[in-house]
Structures are given as structure tokens and as C-alpha cells.
Amino acid sequence: MLIQMKNISELMVDLAYSALIFNNKEIAEEVKYLEEKIDETYYKLQEAAIERAIEEENSAPALILIRLATSIEAISDSAVEIANVVLRDIEPHPVLLESIKESDISITRARVREGSILANKTLGELNLASETGMWVIAIKRGNYWIFGPTENTMIKVGDILLAKGPIEGVNHFHNLCSGKDKKI
Amino acid sequence: MLIQMKNISELMVDLAYSALIFNNKEIAEEVKYLEEKIDETYYKLQEAAIERAIEEENSAPALILIRLATSIEAISDSAVEIANVVLRDIEPHPVLLESIKESDISITRARVREGSILANKTLGELNLASETGMWVIAIKRGNYWIFGPTENTMIKVGDILLAKGPIEGVNHFHNLCSGKDKKI
User: Fold this and answer.
1) What domains does chain B contain, in order, with CATH numbers?
2) What is the pLDDT of residue B156?
């Protein structure tokens, strides 16, 4: 459960910055939705940890688990605060957004065009993260979103991919999506 | 200043998990040290934002900046809390550590051996992040550490590299460090 919380909280932070950069309320709403999932898991984890402590008559493991979970929960709260900036209709200065976009780790988006080698392949098959450094954190397909896609998620022509990765990987990523680059 | 805070807070979270996984107090101490830098920048940012608000007679940009900085500061506080688990001499269950190590984004370490193609190259020359997905977040060289290395940091034989990246990239990373893989 702790790992699940860790993974969701990391996705939330990435999505919160994405919502900010692209001034996108749908992404910001997803951050709030994920917060509910985090809270749910957090309470279940506390319960399980304490029950086990009673069973084993040992408080130490429960304490560590709860302490770590509390820290992760606090990270997810911060992600919600960042998302709230977007939901409150306050648009930060464009210069600020550009610099967030181009900080050490960049966030970018690109549409998958006809002829792209990414089309009709799963993220697992493509190994984008280990081959290019770019992590797909969300996909917009028509009117709906796939947030936190898994290795089984298939990319389709027309998808808009939201990805995070090193600034040096951004051009190649765009060229893979457009079909200009034929090799990963 | 906000981007600086964002970058430091991300490094802090990565280092906090690393300190936990490798039960390493030196890394945990660095997280606490970085927190001081974050706090310093945070206060300077608040001051600058408010002074500018007075100058321009406009509160909105200052409010957004301070709100974002507060969220980022809260993330760094959470990183300190995770690091404190290590500093308080409480060692989490090995199974927990293994699963953190192997969650979506893995954290690993490897020593650079004689014959490794990484040796005597800067991180900027190597483009490790965009070529392999692996980010070097810290380097242990002899008795000292380089935390948050830059593109100008040169890798040397004997260095222990702490890196974060997709689980699929870990083997290749180890082989690059050991000298087994001769191509990035």
C-alpha cells in the first residue's frame, strides 16, 4: 500500500505541474481525484499497520510505515495545492510557466501522427522511458484522458501524449510522435 | 527562485528515498542541509514577490508565486520527514525497502570500474538521462559526496553513482558502470 501511495503521489506532482504549465483544469481535477485515492489508501494502511502491531505486540514497524505514509500523503497534499492554483482561475505569468517547463526535468506534450512508430504499440513494447528518458504520464484520447498509463496501454494515432523527461530528450520525443524520427 | 526551489525539492525527495533504501545517514543529512537552502530561498522569494507587488500595485502575481513556493516548500518538508526515519536509527523492514527500490521508478547504485565508458566523461557529454532514462542524483567519490551533480560533473573510476530511472534501465546502467556494456 505504501508503494501504491508513493507511485500515486509522484504521478500527482507530475500532473499538478502539467496542469499548471498547460493551464488545464481536467488535469488539475485528476490531481484532486487521485488525492481521494491516496487518502483512502492512507487510512487503510494505518489500520492494517496498527492491527498488525497489536497482533505481533511490536510497535516499531507500524510507526515507520505510518510515518512514511504521512510524509507521502503530505507530498500529495502539496500537489493538490499546486493544482488548486489552476482550478482557481489564476494564471501564472507565462515566463514562470516557460521556466517550469524547461527546468531540469521538462514536461511536454505532442500529438501522435499517422506514420509515427509509436502508434499501435504498448508503452511496455516501446520502452520509451529507458530508451529516451521520456515518461508518458497521461494520454488524451478524443474526449477522455488516460492518467498514469501502464505498460499495457496502447498508443494510437491522434493521441496527445503528456511526457516528462530530460530537456535533451524533448526534440526526439516530438519527432517520434510526428513520425519524423523512425527509430527510438 | 521558484525553479531553483522546485529542482532542489525534487532532488530532496529522490535523496530521501535513497537514504531510506540504502540506510545511509550521510544522504539523509544532505536532505536536511538542502532544507535550509530551500527555506532561505523561500523567504527571499516571498520578500521579492511582495516588494514587487507594492511596486506594481498588483497582488495577483505575488499570491501565485507564494502559493506555489509554499507547496514546494511542503514537499521538501516531507522529504526531511522521510530522511528523519533514517536519522532516528529506525530501520524499515527489508521487504518494504526492496519494494520501494523496485517501484515504477527505481533507485540504484553502482561503482564505476576501470574500462567503463562513463569514466572521464561529464554527465553533459554522456546524456545518460536521455539515452538510458537513468538520472544520476548523487556521486560518492572517496570520502565525499557530490549531491545533485550538474552536466559539468565528470565521472571518475571508483565513483559510486546513485541513479534513479525506469526499472528496465537498471541492468544496462550497471553494465555501463562495470564496463560490460561499451555503448550507451
Assistant:
1) 2-94 (1.20.58.220), 104-178 (3.30.70.1450)
2) 98
The CA distance from B21 to B91, in Å, is 10
SS3 call for B145: strand
Of A61, A65, A81, the CB nearest to B67: A81
Provide, as residue numbers in chain A, all residues whose Cβ is less than 8 Å from the Cβ of B99: 2-3
Closest by Cβ to A67, choosing from B2, B85, B93? B85
The pTM score is 0.91
Which 3 state secondary structure label does DSSP give B13? helix
Q: What are phi and psi of A43, to 5 degrees?
A: -70, -40
Closest to B127 (Cβ–Cβ): which among A67, A81, A168? A168
DSSP code string of A117-154: TTTTEEHHHHTHHHHHSPEEEEEEETTEEEES--TTPE
Look at residue B46 and tell me whether its pLDDT is greater than 80. Answer: yes
Whether A129 and A153 have beta carbons less than 8 Å apart is answered as no
Whole-complex ipTM: 0.89
- Chain A CB within 8 Å of residue B6 CB: yes
Q: Chain B residue with minimal CA distance to A8? A: B104
Would you call A160 exposed, middle or buried from its count of C-beta atoms within 10 A (0-12, 13-18, 19+)? Answer: middle
* Axis crossing angle, helix A94-101 with helix A2-21, rounded to the nearest 10: 140
State the pairing for strand pair A144-147/A135-141.
antiparallel
